[in-house]
Write a structure and sequence with these properties.
The complex is a heterotrimer. Chain A contains 10 helices and 9 strands. Chain A is of the alpha+beta class. Chain A has a 5-stranded mixed beta sheet with strand order 3-9-8-5-6, with no helix packed on it. A 4-stranded mixed beta sheet of chain A has the order 2-1-4-7, with no helix packed on it. Chain A is elongated. Chain C is mainly α. Chain C contains 13 helices and 2 strands. In chain C, strand 1 and strand 2 form a beta hairpin. Classes of the chains: A alpha+beta, B alpha+beta, C mainly alpha.
Chain lengths: 396, 436, 273
């Protein structure tokens, strides 16, 4: 792509820029202070309501008290640092950190909310050399106490990262073949490769979209750009889709395809070292399903190729992967929700199946409004179920 | 000079003053625990379940570790013993020193008893736990000896080899199996209970995998006996059904032990060996089926004693001394009877006396369906050549050989005792060689 | 000297062993290594499928010499990932069981897999009748690949795998019992060690924070084992196990058993049950 940047009309002077920055910063500070004040107040109010705050004072050589007992479930600890150095406070299960508050300045107090399962834990008390305190968590009827141990998420998250790595590797290979077809000017082949290539990305979208720059480069819609399809910033799958399906030509797409190859490679590298938080799984899936539910009605996602259904199917597959990974945990911690998510998944899958025709999915512009709504509702149901999952399995 | 209080009261004897101290030291309520034999819950005890643990009042008794000599030699033989031999895996002098220090530390802990370190349950436990959470001493002794192979070129100990230490060679009747012979180090493990010995062995295996390679082991036991108040002590029987140990020198006679068992200064032995001893170990298989099919009269002729009482043919009790002088032709006691060959009781053969400390062993079944059992023979002497080697030469060709087959064992030098907490096993040798 | 059960003695004894680890590990820190381990296992399975294909093809083609030559190397990628492969006990039994595991030993109809083919190739000295075993082995390996792909790796099995591999070495590789007909044990020996070392290396940075001495000791023992095994490397594999000298077998036992002891503490050090 060879178009140049639009010339800036009147570049702002450096002085103005500085002033504006200072002003913005000042506003931010005030805003942050206000927000902090408001949230502290809200928190205080909440505490006053529940009244279950447990104070722990950290002295130079020990915690006071050094032996705590709390019921299972949610506890708010107020950590008061009366020592002369900044400390961190941790709740440990063996060598595992369950919860921590870092860098509590001398003379300052901070709170930490922990949801703990029954058991005996250790608490750190300032210096590493200081003896640790003991935290007894007694069983309670509180439903929240069924929080799984943090180690329970290691396997599912690792497996998801493995899935990401495999998909990303598949994506770079598929994108290369796709780009080769584009560059060779083989319109039919490029069109045929569009869906199988793109849907690999769709499956990992819940986490892959963590990288805003790459997601914008790979998967942005023309709407996001000032000049829509004509905008030089418009790139990635949809730019290629536009060329292949709306303009029905590969001309001028070579550089776009080349960039997509580079972006997919960059994504593969970044995903390999991305630290995925366990709450990201259900969050990402829920968010994506909610967005897809809206897109199901408008049909705006694959507006040039009308291959939306294949895309939805990939989103659902990606969400199913996440639900599968969390199921061993959710089935125990929240059996009803877990079952209802499974049902939502089945409903969405079946709805997609019924739309399938002999040659695969029909173009989305041929799908009736009623069917679109039905599909959107099913996806919304799944989004809602997945949206409740984190809280139900102790991830917030 | 440090003198160890000797503890030669028998298992079933009343608790000695030493033991009282042990018991008090362990904080046991009730003070002195005088008890009879270790015995299982009796049949009269209707509340007892079959899997209830047998009861013993001796579990907390401990043998002293520190002293001029190692324990486990003149210490009264408890019911269970084991010999385990190891090859040294250490290749550097530093690791050799670490080996002896670690061995010393483990033995101190095991023979003292106590609470093993408690670890986070996510770790393997520090102790096998087979004795429960608290390790009991149960009269455990662990006696460490070195084979002649320790004095090869590896560690520069060549010039410090005890003068009479050799590698065991086969006697005519032997059928030695290489995997049951020799070793750089032998550890004799003895206590009241087989499980305590196994616990000790597993502790060494677990804590010293980089230093010691287990070569072979043989466990054994001696039968316990009912107390007979007023009667003299009796020797335990071996698997031939005869009393074994009747003529053993009196281990409570310190002067006698200095003469027979302990290497003394003033001889042609390296100074570091003083107060140590030579250990000879033999795994002697008995053909018990065949023995049991041998007429009693013949059995007694072969051994040289009356089977039921253990008395020599001249006497009434096992402690009576056979009178060979008046029987030069062997009319009463055949000249080739085992006891006569082993100890001819002449002035000339006094220097061949050895202190025996054997156990009976029973392993499994041979390919021919015969019982694999016999004697784990262990003896100690100040001079290996004058002691076991000479005695064995006298026994070569004895009629008893038809019923015996030595299959394993080895010669070792038992290290001098560990004087105090600053000292450790092997230190005199290492110091002599400039390693410590 | 008095016999005393003194507190000082007890303290001395208590002080001998290392207590619990001190630095903390966050569960999220374990995710990366577990992910990497699954990638490692997946790559090994890809290789295993290739090697098994070549091996079983040779068996089925009746090419005795080639099959024998391929045998030792064909198992390497299985032995390296045994902690995971063993999770599927049915497949482990049909792929890697030894004659001893079966009532009728070599004649047992349930005796299949690598060692059954090994028996045919090296003892019977023929590929006759081995085709069904070759087909089954190939399909079992493909099945394993499929099942592992769908498996969420339990972190404690991954970390515990290092110790499990060393137990395997300590109990059956030192003695040369594994490939008793072909005597290609050294392939397996090295593969077990490599598999354990991979796990150790993946988690090493997490343990290094709290226990440098442990990491150093383990790494040194791995190096010692590698050094001894390297003596027996040939152009296309390893010497037969019967070539390993008595001295080297003994020299291997120290580091192997020490590794088994030390690696058994890895789960504890990483806070896993």
């Amino acid at each position: 792509m060879a178009s140049s940047l639009p010339p800036a009309a009147n570049p702002p002077s450096a002085k103005w820029l500085k002033l504006a920055l200072v002003g913005a910063l000042a506003l931010m500070v005030i805003g942050a202070a206000l927000f902090y004040y408001a949230s502290e107040k809200a928190r205080d109010a909440k505490l006053a309501q529940t009244g279950n705050e447990v104070a722990v004072t950290i002295n130079a050589t020990s915690c006071d008290p050094n032996d705590l007992t709390v019921p299972a479930g949610r506890t708010v600890f107020r950590i008061v640092n009366k020592s002369e150095r900044a400390v961190e406070w941790e709740i440990l299960d063996g060598v595992m950190v369950l919860e921590e508050r870092e860098n509590i300045a001398p003379g300052i107090s901070q709170t930490l909310t922990a949801k703990l399962a029954a058991g005996t834990y250790e608490i750190t008390c300032g210096l590493l050399s200081n003896p640790r305190g003991t935290l007894h968590v007694t069983p309670s009827a509180n439903a929240e106490s069924s929080r799984p141990a943090p180690v329970a998420f290691i396997g599912p998250v690792a497996e998801y990262r493995f899935f990401l790595a495999m998909q990303a590797s598949g994506l770079t290979k598929a994108v290369q073949a796709f780009a080769d077809a584009v560059k060779a000017g083989d319109l039919a082949k490029a069109q045929a490769l569009y869906v199988p290539t793109r849907t690999i990305y769709s499956q990992i979208k819940p986490v892959a979209d963590s990288f805003a720059d790459l997601d914008n480069a790979i998967d942005a819609y023309a709407d996001y750009f000032e000049k829509k399809e004509q905008d030089p910033g418009f790139s990635g799958f949809h730019r290629l889709e536009y060329g292949l399906f709306a303009q029905k030509s590969t001309s001028g797409l070579g550089p776009v395809a080349g960039k997509l190859v580079a972006d997919a490679a960059a994504l593969q590298t970044r995903l390999r070292s991305l630290d995925v938080a366990p709450e990201k799984l259900a969050d990402g899936a829920s968010r994506l399903m909610a967005r897809s539910a809206a897109a199901a009605v408008t049909g705006n996602d694959e507006r040039y190729s009308h291959t939306d259904l294949a895309d939805f199917e990939a989103y659902v597959a990606g969400s199913r992967k996440i639900a599968d990974l969390l199921r061993p945990i959710s089935a125990k911690a929240a059996p009803q929700l877990s079952a209802s998510i499974d049902q939502n998944l089945d409903t969405v899958t079946k709805t997609l199946e019924t739309l399938k025709q002999a040659g695969g999915f029909p173009p989305y512009d041929q799908v009736s409004e009623a069917d679109r709504k039905k599909l959107g509702d099913a996806m919304q149901g799944l989004a809602a179920g997945l949206g409740k999952l984190n809280a139900a399995i102790g991830l917030e | 000079m440090i003198e160890r209080e000797k503890n030669h009261d028998r298992l079933d004897a009343p608790a000695s003053p030493d033991r009282r101290r042990v018991l008090a030291g362990l904080g046991l309520a009730g003070g002195v625990m005088v008890s009879g034999l270790a015995q299982a819950a009796t049949t009269a005890d209707t509340d007892a379940h079959v899997t209830d643990a047998p009861i013993s009042d001796h579990m907390r008794e401990a043998q002293p570790f520190h002293g001029l000599h190692q324990a486990g030699i003149v210490t009264a033989r408890p019911a269970n013993g084991m010999i385990a031999t190891f090859d040294v895996l250490a290749t550097t002098k530093e690791d050799l020193v670490r080996l002896f220090k670690t061995l010393n530390e483990r033995i101190v802990f095991l023979t003292t008893g106590g609470l093993p370190p408690q670890l986070d349950p996510r770790y393997p436990p520090s102790d096998s736990g087979i004795l429960g959470p608290v390790v009991v001493p149960d009269n455990l002794t662990m006696t460490v000896s070195l084979g002649s192979s320790m004095f090869d070129d590896r560690f520069g100990l060549k010039n410090f080899k005890p003068a009479r230490l050799s590698r065991m060679t086969g006697s005519p009747n032997d059928a030695l199996e290489p995997e049951l012979c020799h070793g750089d180090i032998s550890v004799q493990i003895c206590s009241n209970t087989a499980d305590v010995n196994i616990h000790a062995l597993r502790d060494l295996v677990k804590n010293m995998p980089d230093l010691l390679y287990l070569r072979w082991k043989q466990e054994g036991s001696v039968p316990v006996m009912p107390r007979k108040p007023g009667a003299p002590a009796e020797s335990a029987r071996n698997f031939l059904g005869f009393r074994d140990g009747s003529a053993n020198p009196n281990s409570s006679d310190a002067a006698l032990m200095d003469e027979i068992v302990w290497v003394q200064p003033g001889k042609d032995e390296p100074a570091w060996t003083h107060y140590g001893s030579y250990q000879a170990v033999r795994i002697i298989r008995n053909f018990v089926e065949r023995w049991d099919r041998t007429p009693l009269h013949e059995q007694q002729q072969i051994i040289g004693r009356v089977k039921a009482t253990g008395a020599p043919f001249h006497g009434k009790t096992e402690h009576d001394v056979p009178d060979y002088a008046s029987d030069p032709e062997g009319k009463a006691t055949p000249v080739d009877a085992h006891i006569r060959l082993a100890n001819p009781r002449t002035a000339q053969t006094q220097k061949n006396l050895i202190l025996r400390r054997p156990f009976n062993y029973s392993n499994g079944v041979s390919k021919a369906g015969q019982l694999e059992m016999g004697l784990l023979f262990i003896c100690y002497q100040a001079d290996l050549e004058k002691g076991f080697i000479t005695v064995q030469k006298r026994l070569d060709g004895e009629p008893l050989e038809e019923y015996l087959k030595p299959v394993g064992g080895g010669f070792f030098f038992t290290l001098p005792g560990v004087r105090d907490k600053k000292d450790y096993l092997g230190r005199p040798l290492l110091a002599a060689a400039g390693l410590a | 000297m008095k016999i005393r059960h003194s507190a000082a003695m007890l303290t001395l004894a208590l002080g001998l062993m290392a207590g619990t680890a001190h630095a903390a590990v966050s569960p999220s820190e374990l995710v990366g290594p577990v992910t990497d381990y699954k990638i490692y296992v997946t790559e090994n399975l890809d290789e295993l499928v290739k090697d098994t294909k070549a091996f079983t093809d040779a068996v089925k083609a009746g090419d005795l010499a080639k099959a024998k030559a391929l045998y030792g190397a064909s198992r390497v990628h299985y032995e390296g990932i045994e902690p995971i492969a063993e999770l599927f006990s049915d497949l482990d039994g049909s792929i890697d069981s030894r004659a001893d595991d079966h009532e009728k030993k070599e004649q047992d109809p349930g005796f299949t897999g690598f060692h059954r083919i090994e028996y045919g190739l090296f003892v019977t000295g023929s590929t006759d009748g081995l085709t069904p075993f070759a087909d089954k082995l190939m399909s079992d390996v493909l099945d394993l690949q499929k099942r592992v792909a769908g498996l969420t790796f339990p972190p404690e099995k991954v970390v515990g795998g290092a110790a499990a591999l060393l137990e395997e070495v300590a109990s059956s590789k030192i003695s040369g019992e594994e490939d008793r007909y072909a005597h290609t044990d050294l392939f397996d020996f090295q593969a077990n060690i490599d598999g354990a070392k991979k796990i150790f290396e993946l988690f090493r940075p997490l343990i290094e924070k709290s226990d440098k001495a442990f990491v150093k000791k383990v790494a040194a023992n791995f190096a010692t084992v590698d050094k001894i095994l390297a003596k027996y490397k040939t152009a296309d594999g390893y010497e037969y196990y019967d070539k390993v000298t008595e001295a080297d077998r003994k020299a291997l036992s120290g580091p192997v058993n020490t590794l088994a002891e030390d690696l058994s503490k890895m789960r504890g050090k990483l806070g896993l049950n």
